[in-house]
Specification:
single chain; mainly alpha; two-stranded antiparallel ribbon; two-stranded antiparallel sheet; elongated
């Protein structure tokens, strides 16, 4: 892990990690795994939360359907980790998830309402 952290810092590499650990096909956010938060704290690198709104309106794994639709991507402000220790992993994970969940819920509603307005206007 230390070699990875050194490489990330030395080469200024940006690392994308999906803290849920897997894709959720139900249109909600899953609980977060802690690995990404350990890495961020141990490397003292900031976390930049990126939130994708739900795409369940046009995607269904069960039905094997991936249609057209709208989803919203939101980048939240960086969360600094310099002053944190591994003892802070759980609270950091909860804090970031709470921020992301609020944005996820808001943008998912916005994307759905936008689709409803477009469909409602086009059926007139």
């Amino acid at each position: 892990m230390k070699e990875t952290m050194t490489l990330l810092k030395d080469k200024n590499i940006k690392l994308w990690i999906f803290p849920e650990g897997t894709r959720n096909h139900e249109g909600a956010m899953l609980p977060f795994k802690k690995g990404a938060f350990h890495l961020a704290i141990e490397s003292k690198m900031p976390i930049v939360p990126v939130v994708f709104s739900s795409y369940s309106e046009f995607y269904s794994k069960k039905e094997k359907r991936f249609g057209t639709g709208k989803f919203i991507i939101t980048c939240l402000p960086p969360v600094k980790t310099e002053a944190l220790t591994v003892d802070d992993v759980s609270s950091l994970s909860e804090q970031v998830r709470k921020q992301m969940l609020e944005v996820f819920n808001d943008t998912s509603l916005e994307a759905t309402q936008s689709r409803l307005m477009v469909n409602g206007a086009s059926s007139r």
